[in-house]
Design a protein that fits this description.
GO terms for molecular function: ATP binding; ATP hydrolysis activity; GTP binding; metal ion binding; ribosomal large subunit binding. This protein has 365 residues and is an alpha/beta fold. It has 3 domains: 168 residues, 3-Layer(aba) Sandwich (Rossmann fold), CATH 3.40.50; 74 residues, Orthogonal Bundle (DNA polymerase, domain 1), CATH 1.10.150; 63 residues, Beta-grasp domain (Ubiquitin-like (UB roll)). It contains 12 helices and 12 strands. The strands form 3 sheets. It has a 6-stranded mixed β-sheet with strand order 2-4-1-5-6-7, with helices on both faces. Strands 3-9-8 form a 3-stranded mixed β-sheet. Strands 11-10-12 form a 3-stranded antiparallel β-sheet. α4 packs antiparallel against α5. The protein is flat.
Length: 365
């Protein structure tokens, strides 16, 4: 599965500069609002230091890492839901993303204009949050109206759906994103999904998506920044620093990061955070042809993991030979089998992060 992350924020907070640095693309990044109009898309390899040892162990030079798709979405301003700025143009782009990464400007720079006239991270965060909430309220109101009209033909289903929809509406009206309601104990809008009762499934609410703040700081503050208070997930990145790193080789990057008190790049930290909040893990396939990383959800069974390669693998699944990546990297396939590190797993096996798997299947099933 391909992970897609939408990069959002107010104009001139460093979205496009960050996007350029993460994806090594060169899109417009200038000092005026709405520089980005159409969304820019960039595909980035997921950094994974397990791939090269595996490739050496199975004697292949072909490595295919997992990828993340970053989408640089037009800047959002106050009252965007009413048509201000670019209006609702950004909404469809965000809805297509698995997660939202909101860039919040922390850095001070008199040469870079702020759309509100002054840098105020808390106010900026509130502006974006409310615009997404207002957009979701419009979506929920339309859903309530549709469901009420259908109540004559299926009153029982409509009644159950309206209970959920109205609870979500009240939550949004209280200024709280839908994801915080979905995490509440005892609230499960999908409990009757198998009966066709999933009133939120097709709405694709913006505030229900996993959300990561990217606090964009000055490069000299990246290791010890002053941040606004938040209960949400976040990473600290200096878009300017990430841009400077692009001109350095790997050894120079490492040395520069160490001088600043940092262990890794902003890209590494952002992808790790995204994997964590989305509940994603990586398994591998490894042989003489190639070593490849596959992104799947935590808790997926071996057949479902196999389905990421091809649907026939899942449909005709028989079993999987499984070995931990460290054992394979150290011993190779022959040595791992001789040491009893390779085991056969069936349909109920839950795939673990770092598993290397060989699937056996029958396409005639």
């Amino acid at each position: 599965m391909k992970l897609s992350i939408g990069i959002v924020g107010l104009p001139n907070v460093g979205k496009s500069t960050l996007f350029n640095s993460l994806t090594k693309n060169q899109v417009e990044a200038r000092n005026y609002p709405f520089c980005t109009i159409d969304p820019n898309v960039g595909v980035v390899n997921v950094p994974d230091n397990r791939l090269e040892p595996l490739a050496k162990a199975v004697k292949t030079e072909k490595i295919i890492p997992a990828v993340v798709e970053f989408i640089d979405i037009a800047g959002i301003v106050k009252d965007a839901h009413k048509g201000e700025g670019l209006g609702n143009q950004f909404l469809a782009n965000i809805r297509e993303c698995d997660a939202i990464a909101e860039v919040v400007r922390i850095f001070e720079n008199p040469d870079v204009l702020h759309v509100e006239g002054a840098v105020n991270p808390t106010s900026d965060m509130d502006t974006i949050s409310m615009e997404l909430i207002f957009a979701d309220l419009q979506t929920v109101d339309k859903a309530i109206s549709r469901t009420e009209k259908l109540s004559k033909t299926n009153p029982k289903q409509a009644e159950k759906e309206l209970v959920v929809l109205k609870k979500v509406k009240q939550w949004l009206e209280d200024g709280k994103p839908a994801r915080t309601l979905l995490s509440q104990k005892g609230f499960d809008p999908f409990e009757n999904e198998e009966k066709g009762l999933n009133p939120l499934g097709e709405l694709n609410l913006l505030t229900a998506k996993p959300h990561i703040y990217i606090f964009n700081v000055n490069e000299n503050e990246a290791a010890n920044p002053k941040l606004p208070k938040t209960n949400e997930d976040y990473v600290v990145i200096s878009a300017k620093l990430e841009q400077d790193l692009q001109d350095l080789d790997e050894a120079e990057q490492k040395e520069y990061l160490e001088e600043l008190g940092l262990k890794d790049t902003g890209l590494d930290r952002l992808i790790r955070e995204a994997y964590e909040i989305l509940g994603l893990i990586t398994y591998f396939t490894a042989g003489e042809m190639e070593v490849r990383a596959w992104t799947i959800k935590k808790g997926w069974t071996a057949p479902k993991a196999a389905g990421e390669i091809h649907t026939d693998f899942e449909k005709g699944f028989i079993s999987a030979d499984v070995v931990n990546w460290k054992d394979l990297a150290e011993l190779g396939w022959t040595g791992a089998k001789e040491k009893g590190k390779v085991r056969a797993e069936g349909k109920d096996y839950i795939t673990k992060d770092g598993d290397v798997m060989v699937f056996k299947f029958n396409v005639s099933k």
